[in-house]
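Researcher: Last one for today. Full complex below.
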Amino acid sequence: MTLNSSRYILRETVNSMKRNPWLSIASVITVMVSLVILGFSIFFLANASNMAESFESELEIATFVKDNATSSQVDALRNQILEMPGVASVTLVTKEEALQDFGKTLGGTQSNLLADLGGRNPFPDKLTVKATDPKNVVALAEVVAALPEVDKVRYGQGFVDQLLKFTQWLRWIGFGVVAAFSVAAIVLISINVKMNVFSRRREIQIMKLVGASNGFIRWPFLIEGLALGLVGGAMAAGIVGMGYNSIAMYVLSKMTFLPVVQNDVLFRQVTFGLLFSGMAMGALGSGISLQKFLRA
Amino acid sequence: MIQLTNVSKIYPNGARALVDVNLKIGKGDFVFLVGPSGAGKSTLIRLLYREESPTRGQVQINSKNLVRMKEREVPYLRRNIGVIFQDFKLLPNKTVFENVAFALEVIGVVKREVRTRTRATLELVGLASKETSYPHELSGGEQQRVCVARAIINNPALLVADEPTGNLDPDTAWDIMDLLYNINKRGTTIVMATHAKSIVNKMQKRVIAIENGKVARDEEKGGYGYDT
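Model: Here's the assembly. Have a good evening.
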Protein backbone atom coordinates (compact mmCIF):
# COMPACT_ATOMS: atom_id res chain seq x y z
CA MET A 1 0.00 0.00 0.00
CA THR A 2 1.48 3.32 -1.04
CA LEU A 3 1.55 6.43 1.12
CA ASN A 4 -0.87 8.00 -1.34
CA SER A 5 -3.46 5.29 -0.82
CA SER A 6 -3.09 5.42 2.95
CA ARG A 7 -3.82 9.13 2.87
CA TYR A 8 -6.90 8.53 0.74
CA ILE A 9 -8.12 5.78 3.05
CA LEU A 10 -7.62 7.89 6.17
CA ARG A 11 -9.46 10.84 4.64
CA GLU A 12 -12.38 8.63 3.65
CA THR A 13 -12.53 7.13 7.14
CA VAL A 14 -12.86 10.56 8.73
CA ASN A 15 -15.45 11.70 6.16
CA SER A 16 -17.35 8.53 6.74
CA MET A 17 -17.59 9.09 10.48
CA LYS A 18 -18.65 12.69 9.98
CA ARG A 19 -21.48 11.58 7.74
CA ASN A 20 -23.43 9.81 10.51
CA PRO A 21 -22.15 11.39 13.72
CA TRP A 22 -25.04 10.19 15.91
CA LEU A 23 -24.76 6.64 14.75
CA SER A 24 -21.03 6.78 15.37
CA ILE A 25 -21.60 8.12 18.88
CA ALA A 26 -24.23 5.47 19.56
CA SER A 27 -21.85 2.74 18.39
CA VAL A 28 -19.04 4.05 20.57
CA ILE A 29 -21.32 4.27 23.61
CA THR A 30 -22.66 0.73 23.19
CA VAL A 31 -19.15 -0.63 22.86
CA MET A 32 -18.18 1.36 25.92
CA VAL A 33 -21.15 0.21 28.04
CA SER A 34 -20.62 -3.44 27.19
CA LEU A 35 -16.93 -3.22 27.98
CA VAL A 36 -17.44 -1.24 31.20
CA ILE A 37 -19.73 -4.01 32.41
CA LEU A 38 -17.23 -6.61 31.27
CA GLY A 39 -14.38 -4.82 33.04
CA PHE A 40 -16.20 -4.40 36.33
CA SER A 41 -17.45 -7.99 36.18
CA ILE A 42 -13.89 -9.23 35.82
CA PHE A 43 -12.73 -7.19 38.82
CA PHE A 44 -15.74 -8.20 40.87
CA LEU A 45 -15.20 -11.87 40.11
CA ALA A 46 -11.50 -11.56 40.86
CA ASN A 47 -12.41 -10.15 44.26
CA ALA A 48 -15.10 -12.71 44.93
CA SER A 49 -12.82 -15.63 44.20
CA ASN A 50 -10.04 -13.98 46.16
CA MET A 51 -12.42 -13.64 49.09
CA ALA A 52 -13.58 -17.23 48.74
CA GLU A 53 -9.98 -18.38 48.74
CA SER A 54 -9.04 -16.42 51.83
CA PHE A 55 -12.05 -17.80 53.69
CA GLU A 56 -11.30 -21.28 52.48
CA SER A 57 -7.71 -21.12 53.69
CA GLU A 58 -9.02 -20.32 57.17
CA LEU A 59 -11.31 -23.31 57.14
CA GLU A 60 -10.52 -25.93 59.76
CA ILE A 61 -12.28 -28.90 61.23
CA ALA A 62 -12.99 -28.66 64.94
CA THR A 63 -13.02 -32.26 66.17
CA PHE A 64 -14.59 -32.79 69.58
CA VAL A 65 -13.45 -35.91 71.39
CA LYS A 66 -15.87 -38.02 73.44
CA ASP A 67 -15.88 -37.07 77.12
CA ASN A 68 -14.83 -40.51 78.39
CA ALA A 69 -11.65 -40.71 76.31
CA THR A 70 -8.38 -40.89 78.22
CA SER A 71 -5.50 -38.56 77.44
CA SER A 72 -3.51 -41.42 75.86
CA GLN A 73 -6.49 -42.21 73.67
CA VAL A 74 -6.62 -38.54 72.68
CA ASP A 75 -2.91 -38.63 71.78
CA ALA A 76 -3.42 -41.79 69.75
CA LEU A 77 -6.38 -40.18 67.96
CA ARG A 78 -4.29 -37.14 67.21
CA ASN A 79 -1.54 -39.23 65.63
CA GLN A 80 -4.08 -41.26 63.70
CA ILE A 81 -5.61 -38.14 62.13
CA LEU A 82 -2.18 -36.65 61.47
CA GLU A 83 -1.31 -39.70 59.37
CA MET A 84 -4.40 -39.40 57.20
CA PRO A 85 -3.76 -38.21 53.65
CA GLY A 86 -4.57 -34.55 53.03
CA VAL A 87 -4.06 -33.45 56.63
CA ALA A 88 -1.79 -30.47 57.10
CA SER A 89 -1.77 -30.13 60.88
CA VAL A 90 -3.59 -31.20 64.02
CA THR A 91 -3.57 -28.99 67.09
CA LEU A 92 -4.81 -30.24 70.45
CA VAL A 93 -6.71 -28.00 72.80
CA THR A 94 -7.35 -30.00 75.97
CA LYS A 95 -10.45 -29.53 78.03
CA GLU A 96 -8.33 -27.85 80.73
CA GLU A 97 -6.93 -25.35 78.23
CA ALA A 98 -10.40 -24.70 76.87
CA LEU A 99 -11.68 -23.99 80.36
CA GLN A 100 -8.73 -21.73 81.03
CA ASP A 101 -9.40 -19.80 77.82
CA PHE A 102 -13.02 -19.51 78.78
CA GLY A 103 -12.01 -18.32 82.25
CA LYS A 104 -9.71 -15.69 80.76
CA THR A 105 -12.54 -14.29 78.70
CA LEU A 106 -14.58 -13.98 81.91
CA GLY A 107 -11.65 -12.46 83.81
CA GLY A 108 -11.87 -14.88 86.78
CA THR A 109 -9.56 -17.70 88.02
CA GLN A 110 -9.81 -21.32 87.04
CA SER A 111 -10.42 -22.80 90.46
CA ASN A 112 -13.30 -20.46 91.12
CA LEU A 113 -14.71 -21.14 87.72
CA LEU A 114 -14.49 -24.90 88.08
CA ALA A 115 -16.19 -24.65 91.44
CA ASP A 116 -18.83 -22.38 90.01
CA LEU A 117 -19.53 -24.97 87.34
CA GLY A 118 -20.16 -27.59 90.02
CA GLY A 119 -16.66 -29.15 89.80
CA ARG A 120 -17.28 -30.51 86.34
CA ASN A 121 -15.48 -29.24 83.22
CA PRO A 122 -18.09 -28.93 80.45
CA PHE A 123 -15.51 -28.52 77.65
CA PRO A 124 -14.44 -31.52 75.59
CA ASP A 125 -10.94 -32.06 74.26
CA LYS A 126 -10.72 -30.44 70.85
CA LEU A 127 -8.48 -31.36 67.90
CA THR A 128 -8.21 -28.59 65.32
CA VAL A 129 -7.55 -30.25 61.96
CA LYS A 130 -6.30 -28.27 58.95
CA ALA A 131 -6.51 -29.78 55.49
CA THR A 132 -3.80 -29.28 52.88
CA ASP A 133 -6.48 -28.42 50.31
CA PRO A 134 -9.67 -26.59 51.29
CA LYS A 135 -11.61 -28.67 48.77
CA ASN A 136 -10.92 -31.78 50.88
CA VAL A 137 -12.41 -30.29 54.03
CA VAL A 138 -15.83 -31.87 53.62
CA ALA A 139 -14.53 -35.38 52.81
CA LEU A 140 -11.94 -35.23 55.57
CA ALA A 141 -14.50 -34.09 58.10
CA GLU A 142 -16.70 -37.06 57.31
CA VAL A 143 -13.82 -39.52 57.80
CA VAL A 144 -12.82 -37.94 61.07
CA ALA A 145 -16.41 -37.89 62.35
CA ALA A 146 -16.67 -41.65 61.77
CA LEU A 147 -13.78 -42.43 64.18
CA PRO A 148 -15.05 -44.12 67.39
CA GLU A 149 -13.49 -41.66 69.84
CA VAL A 150 -14.91 -38.66 68.06
CA ASP A 151 -18.07 -37.13 69.39
CA LYS A 152 -18.77 -34.63 66.63
CA VAL A 153 -17.02 -32.40 64.13
CA ARG A 154 -17.77 -28.85 63.10
CA TYR A 155 -16.52 -26.91 60.10
CA GLY A 156 -17.76 -24.07 57.83
CA GLN A 157 -20.43 -26.38 56.43
CA GLY A 158 -22.34 -24.81 53.57
CA PHE A 159 -20.67 -21.43 53.74
CA VAL A 160 -17.98 -22.20 51.19
CA ASP A 161 -20.44 -23.93 48.93
CA GLN A 162 -22.74 -20.95 49.01
CA LEU A 163 -19.97 -18.51 48.29
CA LEU A 164 -18.83 -20.57 45.32
CA LYS A 165 -22.40 -20.92 44.08
CA PHE A 166 -22.87 -17.19 44.38
CA THR A 167 -19.77 -16.37 42.36
CA GLN A 168 -20.75 -18.95 39.75
CA TRP A 169 -24.19 -17.41 39.45
CA LEU A 170 -22.68 -13.96 39.21
CA ARG A 171 -20.36 -15.17 36.48
CA TRP A 172 -23.30 -16.37 34.37
CA ILE A 173 -25.28 -13.17 34.79
CA GLY A 174 -22.22 -11.08 34.00
CA PHE A 175 -21.54 -13.23 30.97
CA GLY A 176 -25.13 -12.84 29.74
CA VAL A 177 -25.19 -9.07 30.15
CA VAL A 178 -21.81 -8.66 28.48
CA ALA A 179 -22.83 -10.93 25.60
CA ALA A 180 -26.07 -9.01 25.03
CA PHE A 181 -24.30 -5.65 24.98
CA SER A 182 -21.53 -6.97 22.76
CA VAL A 183 -24.06 -8.17 20.19
CA ALA A 184 -25.79 -4.79 20.34
CA ALA A 185 -22.46 -3.02 19.84
CA ILE A 186 -21.50 -5.21 16.90
CA VAL A 187 -24.91 -4.73 15.27
CA LEU A 188 -24.74 -0.95 15.72
CA ILE A 189 -21.27 -0.78 14.20
CA SER A 190 -22.36 -2.92 11.29
CA ILE A 191 -25.41 -0.69 10.70
CA ASN A 192 -23.11 2.31 10.86
CA VAL A 193 -20.75 0.84 8.29
CA LYS A 194 -23.63 -0.36 6.11
CA MET A 195 -25.15 3.12 6.03
CA ASN A 196 -21.83 4.57 4.99
CA VAL A 197 -21.46 1.94 2.31
CA PHE A 198 -24.94 2.87 1.11
CA SER A 199 -24.30 6.59 1.07
CA ARG A 200 -21.11 5.97 -0.89
CA ARG A 201 -22.54 3.34 -3.24
CA ARG A 202 -22.08 5.57 -6.32
CA GLU A 203 -18.47 6.18 -5.44
CA ILE A 204 -17.93 2.48 -4.79
CA GLN A 205 -19.53 1.62 -8.12
CA ILE A 206 -17.09 3.89 -9.91
CA MET A 207 -14.17 2.64 -7.86
CA LYS A 208 -14.98 -0.91 -8.96
CA LEU A 209 -15.42 0.25 -12.51
CA VAL A 210 -12.01 1.87 -12.79
CA GLY A 211 -10.35 -1.14 -11.19
CA ALA A 212 -9.82 -0.30 -7.52
CA SER A 213 -9.06 -3.54 -5.70
CA ASN A 214 -11.62 -4.88 -3.24
CA GLY A 215 -9.11 -4.45 -0.44
CA PHE A 216 -8.70 -0.80 -1.27
CA ILE A 217 -12.46 -0.26 -1.28
CA ARG A 218 -12.88 -2.12 2.01
CA TRP A 219 -10.11 -0.45 4.01
CA PRO A 220 -11.83 2.82 4.95
CA PHE A 221 -14.87 0.94 6.23
CA LEU A 222 -12.80 -1.57 8.14
CA ILE A 223 -10.72 1.18 9.72
CA GLU A 224 -13.89 3.06 10.58
CA GLY A 225 -15.23 0.04 12.46
CA LEU A 226 -11.91 -0.50 14.19
CA ALA A 227 -11.70 3.16 15.19
CA LEU A 228 -15.23 3.20 16.62
CA GLY A 229 -14.47 0.04 18.61
CA LEU A 230 -11.12 1.35 19.78
CA VAL A 231 -12.58 4.64 21.03
CA GLY A 232 -15.31 2.73 22.90
CA GLY A 233 -12.72 0.34 24.33
CA ALA A 234 -10.42 3.17 25.43
CA MET A 235 -13.27 4.98 27.17
CA ALA A 236 -14.30 1.76 28.90
CA ALA A 237 -10.71 1.08 29.99
CA GLY A 238 -10.49 4.60 31.45
CA ILE A 239 -13.80 4.33 33.29
CA VAL A 240 -13.13 0.84 34.65
CA GLY A 241 -9.54 1.69 35.62
CA MET A 242 -10.35 4.89 37.49
CA GLY A 243 -13.62 3.54 38.84
CA TYR A 244 -12.06 0.42 40.27
CA ASN A 245 -9.17 2.30 41.79
CA SER A 246 -11.41 4.70 43.65
CA ILE A 247 -13.74 1.93 44.80
CA ALA A 248 -10.75 -0.12 46.01
CA MET A 249 -9.38 2.91 47.89
CA TYR A 250 -12.74 3.52 49.52
CA VAL A 251 -13.20 -0.09 50.58
CA LEU A 252 -9.65 -0.32 51.91
CA SER A 253 -10.12 2.79 54.03
CA LYS A 254 -13.56 1.83 55.37
CA MET A 255 -13.40 -1.95 55.62
CA THR A 256 -9.77 -2.83 56.21
CA PHE A 257 -10.54 -6.49 56.89
CA LEU A 258 -11.81 -7.13 53.32
CA PRO A 259 -9.20 -8.60 51.01
CA VAL A 260 -9.33 -6.22 47.99
CA VAL A 261 -7.43 -7.30 44.90
CA GLN A 262 -4.81 -4.77 43.87
CA ASN A 263 -2.94 -6.61 41.20
CA ASP A 264 -1.00 -4.57 38.63
CA VAL A 265 -0.76 -7.47 36.21
CA LEU A 266 -4.51 -8.09 36.33
CA PHE A 267 -5.05 -4.36 35.95
CA ARG A 268 -2.93 -4.15 32.81
CA GLN A 269 -4.49 -7.28 31.37
CA VAL A 270 -8.00 -5.94 31.86
CA THR A 271 -7.11 -2.54 30.36
CA PHE A 272 -5.51 -4.01 27.25
CA GLY A 273 -8.18 -6.67 27.09
CA LEU A 274 -10.89 -3.98 26.92
CA LEU A 275 -9.04 -2.05 24.20
CA PHE A 276 -8.54 -5.21 22.21
CA SER A 277 -12.18 -6.35 22.68
CA GLY A 278 -13.35 -2.95 21.45
CA MET A 279 -11.29 -3.29 18.31
CA ALA A 280 -12.48 -6.85 17.81
CA MET A 281 -16.11 -5.70 18.05
CA GLY A 282 -15.42 -2.97 15.51
CA ALA A 283 -13.71 -5.32 13.11
CA LEU A 284 -16.50 -7.87 13.47
CA GLY A 285 -19.18 -5.23 12.95
CA SER A 286 -17.68 -3.83 9.78
CA GLY A 287 -16.70 -7.29 8.58
CA ILE A 288 -20.32 -8.41 8.76
CA SER A 289 -21.58 -5.53 6.65
CA LEU A 290 -18.70 -5.68 4.17
CA GLN A 291 -19.00 -9.38 3.60
CA LYS A 292 -21.64 -9.13 0.90
CA PHE A 293 -21.43 -5.81 -0.82
CA LEU A 294 -18.32 -6.42 -2.91
CA ARG A 295 -19.51 -9.66 -4.40
CA ALA A 296 -21.65 -8.20 -7.17
CA MET B 1 -8.87 -8.97 -29.07
CA ILE B 2 -12.44 -9.82 -28.05
CA GLN B 3 -13.91 -13.23 -28.63
CA LEU B 4 -17.31 -14.48 -27.57
CA THR B 5 -17.92 -18.20 -28.01
CA ASN B 6 -21.45 -19.65 -27.79
CA VAL B 7 -22.40 -17.04 -25.22
CA SER B 8 -25.85 -17.21 -23.65
CA LYS B 9 -27.15 -15.08 -20.82
CA ILE B 10 -30.36 -16.01 -19.06
CA TYR B 11 -31.36 -13.85 -16.12
CA PRO B 12 -32.76 -15.41 -12.94
CA ASN B 13 -36.24 -14.18 -13.93
CA GLY B 14 -36.00 -16.31 -17.08
CA ALA B 15 -35.34 -13.49 -19.55
CA ARG B 16 -33.05 -14.68 -22.34
CA ALA B 17 -30.86 -11.63 -23.01
CA LEU B 18 -28.32 -13.39 -25.24
CA VAL B 19 -28.65 -16.70 -27.08
CA ASP B 20 -25.61 -18.52 -28.44
CA VAL B 21 -23.69 -15.45 -29.56
CA ASN B 22 -20.37 -15.82 -31.42
CA LEU B 23 -18.32 -12.72 -32.08
CA LYS B 24 -14.77 -11.65 -32.86
CA ILE B 25 -13.59 -8.09 -32.59
CA GLY B 26 -10.03 -7.22 -33.60
CA LYS B 27 -7.57 -4.86 -32.00
CA GLY B 28 -8.14 -1.24 -32.99
CA ASP B 29 -11.65 -1.92 -34.35
CA PHE B 30 -14.54 0.51 -33.99
CA VAL B 31 -17.77 -1.45 -33.62
CA PHE B 32 -21.37 -0.24 -33.32
CA LEU B 33 -23.88 -2.47 -31.56
CA VAL B 34 -27.37 -1.67 -32.82
CA GLY B 35 -30.79 -3.18 -32.34
CA PRO B 36 -34.10 -2.56 -30.63
CA SER B 37 -34.28 -1.78 -26.91
CA GLY B 38 -34.06 -4.90 -24.82
CA ALA B 39 -32.39 -6.90 -27.58
CA GLY B 40 -29.34 -7.63 -25.45
CA LYS B 41 -26.89 -4.84 -26.39
CA SER B 42 -26.36 -3.64 -22.84
CA THR B 43 -25.96 -7.19 -21.57
CA LEU B 44 -23.26 -7.80 -24.16
CA ILE B 45 -21.49 -4.58 -23.13
CA ARG B 46 -21.63 -5.60 -19.46
CA LEU B 47 -20.11 -8.98 -20.24
CA LEU B 48 -17.08 -7.20 -21.70
CA TYR B 49 -16.06 -5.48 -18.47
CA ARG B 50 -17.28 -8.39 -16.40
CA GLU B 51 -20.08 -6.59 -14.69
CA GLU B 52 -21.89 -9.81 -15.53
CA SER B 53 -20.88 -13.33 -16.45
CA PRO B 54 -22.57 -15.41 -19.14
CA THR B 55 -24.80 -18.33 -18.19
CA ARG B 56 -23.07 -20.42 -20.86
CA GLY B 57 -20.14 -19.90 -23.20
CA GLN B 58 -16.82 -18.11 -22.97
CA VAL B 59 -15.77 -14.47 -23.11
CA GLN B 60 -12.15 -13.72 -23.90
CA ILE B 61 -10.38 -10.37 -23.97
CA ASN B 62 -6.73 -10.29 -24.98
CA SER B 63 -6.77 -14.08 -24.60
CA LYS B 64 -7.85 -13.73 -20.95
CA ASN B 65 -10.87 -15.81 -20.11
CA LEU B 66 -13.34 -13.62 -18.21
CA VAL B 67 -15.55 -16.52 -17.16
CA ARG B 68 -12.82 -18.45 -15.43
CA MET B 69 -11.27 -15.28 -14.02
CA LYS B 70 -10.99 -15.10 -10.23
CA GLU B 71 -12.84 -12.34 -8.43
CA ARG B 72 -9.62 -10.69 -7.28
CA GLU B 73 -8.31 -10.48 -10.84
CA VAL B 74 -11.29 -8.43 -12.03
CA PRO B 75 -9.93 -5.05 -10.84
CA TYR B 76 -6.81 -5.56 -12.95
CA LEU B 77 -8.92 -6.43 -16.00
CA ARG B 78 -10.91 -3.23 -15.53
CA ARG B 79 -7.82 -1.06 -15.37
CA ASN B 80 -7.38 -1.96 -19.03
CA ILE B 81 -11.00 -1.26 -20.03
CA GLY B 82 -12.63 2.17 -20.10
CA VAL B 83 -16.41 2.41 -19.68
CA ILE B 84 -18.67 5.28 -20.76
CA PHE B 85 -22.32 5.57 -19.77
CA GLN B 86 -25.37 7.35 -21.03
CA ASP B 87 -25.83 9.00 -17.62
CA PHE B 88 -22.11 9.81 -17.16
CA LYS B 89 -21.93 8.51 -13.56
CA LEU B 90 -19.91 11.42 -12.21
CA LEU B 91 -19.47 12.11 -8.50
CA PRO B 92 -21.51 15.27 -7.82
CA ASN B 93 -19.44 16.48 -4.86
CA LYS B 94 -16.14 16.31 -6.72
CA THR B 95 -14.78 18.78 -9.27
CA VAL B 96 -14.03 17.84 -12.87
CA PHE B 97 -10.38 17.42 -11.98
CA GLU B 98 -11.16 15.29 -8.93
CA ASN B 99 -13.60 13.11 -10.87
CA VAL B 100 -10.97 12.25 -13.45
CA ALA B 101 -8.11 12.00 -10.94
CA PHE B 102 -10.25 9.62 -8.86
CA ALA B 103 -9.69 6.83 -11.41
CA LEU B 104 -5.95 7.05 -10.76
CA GLU B 105 -6.10 7.73 -7.00
CA VAL B 106 -8.04 4.59 -6.24
CA ILE B 107 -5.55 2.35 -8.02
CA GLY B 108 -2.72 3.84 -5.99
CA VAL B 109 -0.99 6.12 -8.53
CA VAL B 110 1.32 8.65 -6.84
CA LYS B 111 0.06 12.18 -6.44
CA ARG B 112 2.41 13.94 -8.86
CA GLU B 113 1.65 11.48 -11.62
CA VAL B 114 -2.08 11.82 -10.94
CA ARG B 115 -1.80 15.57 -11.45
CA THR B 116 0.14 15.50 -14.73
CA ARG B 117 -1.90 12.70 -16.27
CA THR B 118 -5.22 14.26 -15.26
CA ARG B 119 -4.20 17.62 -16.77
CA ALA B 120 -3.09 15.94 -20.00
CA THR B 121 -6.31 13.95 -20.30
CA LEU B 122 -8.51 16.98 -19.63
CA GLU B 123 -6.53 18.78 -22.32
CA LEU B 124 -7.25 15.93 -24.71
CA VAL B 125 -11.02 16.05 -24.18
CA GLY B 126 -11.02 19.88 -24.30
CA LEU B 127 -11.92 20.57 -20.67
CA ALA B 128 -8.68 22.07 -19.38
CA SER B 129 -10.43 25.32 -18.54
CA LYS B 130 -13.19 23.62 -16.52
CA GLU B 131 -11.16 21.56 -14.10
CA THR B 132 -12.42 23.35 -10.99
CA SER B 133 -16.10 23.19 -12.04
CA TYR B 134 -18.56 20.78 -10.49
CA PRO B 135 -20.60 18.41 -12.71
CA HIS B 136 -23.85 20.33 -12.17
CA GLU B 137 -22.21 23.46 -13.57
CA LEU B 138 -21.45 21.70 -16.87
CA SER B 139 -23.54 21.02 -19.98
CA GLY B 140 -24.44 17.42 -20.85
CA GLY B 141 -21.75 17.28 -23.52
CA GLU B 142 -19.12 18.55 -21.09
CA GLN B 143 -20.19 16.01 -18.50
CA GLN B 144 -19.84 13.24 -21.05
CA ARG B 145 -16.34 14.50 -21.84
CA VAL B 146 -15.46 14.17 -18.17
CA CYS B 147 -16.75 10.60 -18.28
CA VAL B 148 -14.66 9.92 -21.39
CA ALA B 149 -11.61 11.45 -19.76
CA ARG B 150 -12.06 9.21 -16.72
CA ALA B 151 -12.48 6.17 -18.99
CA ILE B 152 -9.32 6.76 -21.03
CA ILE B 153 -6.94 8.13 -18.40
CA ASN B 154 -5.45 4.68 -17.83
CA ASN B 155 -4.80 4.25 -21.57
CA PRO B 156 -7.09 1.24 -21.81
CA ALA B 157 -6.81 -1.07 -24.81
CA LEU B 158 -10.61 -1.28 -24.93
CA LEU B 159 -13.25 1.40 -24.54
CA VAL B 160 -16.87 0.29 -24.20
CA ALA B 161 -19.73 2.77 -24.39
CA ASP B 162 -23.39 2.15 -23.67
CA GLU B 163 -25.36 4.79 -25.57
CA PRO B 164 -22.88 7.57 -24.85
CA THR B 165 -24.85 10.10 -26.92
CA GLY B 166 -28.28 9.05 -25.65
CA ASN B 167 -28.70 12.14 -23.46
CA LEU B 168 -27.10 14.65 -25.81
CA ASP B 169 -28.39 16.88 -28.60
CA PRO B 170 -27.16 16.00 -32.12
CA ASP B 171 -24.40 18.65 -32.31
CA THR B 172 -22.96 17.71 -28.93
CA ALA B 173 -23.28 14.04 -29.83
CA TRP B 174 -21.06 14.65 -32.83
CA ASP B 175 -18.47 16.37 -30.63
CA ILE B 176 -18.31 13.22 -28.52
CA MET B 177 -18.11 11.04 -31.62
CA ASP B 178 -15.18 13.12 -32.91
CA LEU B 179 -13.50 12.52 -29.57
CA LEU B 180 -14.11 8.76 -29.73
CA TYR B 181 -12.96 8.73 -33.37
CA ASN B 182 -9.65 10.30 -32.36
CA ILE B 183 -9.22 7.92 -29.44
CA ASN B 184 -9.83 4.99 -31.81
CA LYS B 185 -7.26 6.46 -34.22
CA ARG B 186 -4.67 6.15 -31.46
CA GLY B 187 -5.24 2.40 -31.38
CA THR B 188 -7.95 1.93 -28.76
CA THR B 189 -10.61 -0.64 -29.62
CA ILE B 190 -14.10 0.82 -29.22
CA VAL B 191 -17.39 -1.05 -28.78
CA MET B 192 -20.38 1.27 -28.69
CA ALA B 193 -24.03 0.39 -28.24
CA THR B 194 -26.24 3.05 -29.78
CA HIS B 195 -29.59 4.07 -31.21
CA ALA B 196 -28.13 7.08 -33.06
CA LYS B 197 -28.99 6.21 -36.67
CA SER B 198 -27.33 9.20 -38.30
CA ILE B 199 -24.07 8.62 -36.43
CA VAL B 200 -23.92 4.96 -37.41
CA ASN B 201 -24.76 5.69 -41.03
CA LYS B 202 -22.21 8.45 -41.38
CA MET B 203 -19.29 6.82 -39.55
CA GLN B 204 -19.25 3.77 -41.86
CA LYS B 205 -17.81 1.41 -39.25
CA ARG B 206 -18.50 -2.21 -38.51
CA VAL B 207 -22.11 -2.69 -37.38
CA ILE B 208 -23.36 -5.65 -35.37
CA ALA B 209 -27.13 -5.84 -35.03
CA ILE B 210 -28.54 -7.74 -32.07
CA GLU B 211 -32.15 -8.92 -32.14
CA ASN B 212 -33.79 -11.16 -29.57
CA GLY B 213 -30.41 -11.95 -28.10
CA LYS B 214 -28.90 -13.12 -31.38
CA VAL B 215 -26.54 -11.58 -33.89
CA ALA B 216 -28.91 -10.66 -36.73
CA ARG B 217 -26.42 -8.84 -38.92
CA ASP B 218 -22.68 -8.19 -38.88
CA GLU B 219 -21.21 -6.04 -41.64
CA GLU B 220 -18.08 -3.99 -42.22
CA LYS B 221 -18.81 -0.33 -43.05
CA GLY B 222 -22.46 -0.98 -42.32
CA GLY B 223 -25.45 1.27 -41.74
CA TYR B 224 -27.95 1.51 -38.91
CA GLY B 225 -30.49 -0.51 -40.88
CA TYR B 226 -33.59 0.28 -38.81
CA ASP B 227 -36.26 2.88 -39.45
CA THR B 228 -36.79 4.94 -36.35
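Chain A is about 75% helix and 10% strand. Chain A has a mean pLDDT of 79.
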